[in-house]
């Protein structure tokens, strides 16, 4: 079946640095990709919706200059957390949508120290 | 803003018991999905319900979509320790992108 691959699975970075997370749809073309953040013992909170070749649409309260999203192709979207701070530590999950179906990546655990 | 209220948030039961998880909203969704998530992993889709009043069964799991497509329930019969996990409902919004709005989740623990 369709698979969405997220990389890296986990990352530790220093405060003030930037981190890029990749989300790839491996065997289907994803016209739309979504980025979520999940804090411990909480549900998934939608951060932004990204469509190939256009600017991402951010949910209310999500800083677009801090969470840069690029969806350059139908199989790849990236989320860059810029100038990361400890409060950005979280589990980031992407999902890819194609042909009416939505599949989730395995998530990226980001720890900012 | 569309919201999904999921209850209960926590459920600790003994093996063999039955349970029901509820997902309610004041909004209408084009479809509703149920996921199960293990720690450190992404959610895995269990079922999608689309039609009001629809009932779907997946072994010991029964999913129901309300007639008005505003609420849904997940019923597990004779729960087993392997059912332990986080269960999430998610409503798909109508419109171009079909984005998912997630409920708060139900953390289920089934004890042997």
Secondary structure: elements and pairs:
The complex is a heterodimer of chains A (about 110) and B (about 110).
Chain A: E1 4-7, E2 10-13, E3 19-25, E4 32-38, E5 45-51, E6 57-58, E7 67-73, E8 76-81, E9 90-98, E10 101-104, E11 108-112
Parallel strand pairs in A: 2-11
Antiparallel strand pairs in A: 1-3, 3-8, 4-5, 4-9, 5-6, 7-8, 9-10, 9-11
Chain B: E1 5-7, E2 10-14, E3 19-24, E4 31-37, E5 44-49, E6 55-58, E7 61-65, E8 71-76, E9 85-92, E10 100-102, E11 106-111
Parallel strand pairs in B: 2-11
Antiparallel strand pairs in B: 1-3, 3-8, 4-5, 4-9, 6-7, 7-8, 9-10, 9-11
Describe this structure in words.
The complex is a heterodimer of chains A (113) and B (112). Chain A contains no helices and 11 strands. Chain A is an all-beta fold and 113 residues long. In chain A, strands 2, 4, 5, 6, 9, 10 and 11 form a 7-stranded mixed β-sheet that branches. A 4-stranded antiparallel β-sheet of chain A has the order 1-3-8-7, with no helix packed on it. Chain A is globular. The model of chain A has no long low-confidence stretch (mean pLDDT 92). Chain B has strands at 5-7, 10-14, 19-24, 31-37, 44-49, 55-58, 61-65, 71-76, 85-92, 100-102, 106-111. The model of chain B has no long low-confidence stretch (mean pLDDT 92). The relative contact order of chain B is 0.33. In chain B, a hairpin with a 7-residue loop joins strand 9 and strand 10 (100-102). The interface between A and B is medium-sized, with 26 and 21 residues.
């Amino acid at each position: 079946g369709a698979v969405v691959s997220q990389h890296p699975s986990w990352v530790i970075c220093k405060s003030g640095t930037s981190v890029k997370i990749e989300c790839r749809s491996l065997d289907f073309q994803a016209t739309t990709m979504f980025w979520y953040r999940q804090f411990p013992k909480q549900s998934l909170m939608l951060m932004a919706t990204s469509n190939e070749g256009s600017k991402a649409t951010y949910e209310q309260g999500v800083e677009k200059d801090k969470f840069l999203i690029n969806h350059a192709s139908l199989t790849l979207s990236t989320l860059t957390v810029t100038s990361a701070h400890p409060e950005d530590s979280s589990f980031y999950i992407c999902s890819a949508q194609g042909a009416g179906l939505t599949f989730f990546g395995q998530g990226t655990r980001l720890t900012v120290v | 803003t569309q919201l999904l209220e999921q209850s209960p948030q926590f459920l600790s039961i003994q093996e063999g018991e039955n349970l029901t998880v509820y997902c309610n909203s004041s909004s209408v969704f084009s479809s509703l999905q149920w996921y199960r998530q293990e720690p450190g992993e992404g959610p895995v889709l269990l079922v999608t319900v689309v039609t009001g009043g629809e009932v779907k069964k997946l072994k010991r799991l029964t999913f129901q979509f309300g007639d008005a497509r505003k609420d849904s329930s997940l019923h597990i019969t004779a729960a087993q320790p392997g059912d332990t996990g986080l269960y999430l409902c998610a409503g798909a919004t109508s419109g171009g992108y079909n984005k998912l709005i997630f409920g708060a989740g139900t953390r289920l623990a089934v004890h042997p």
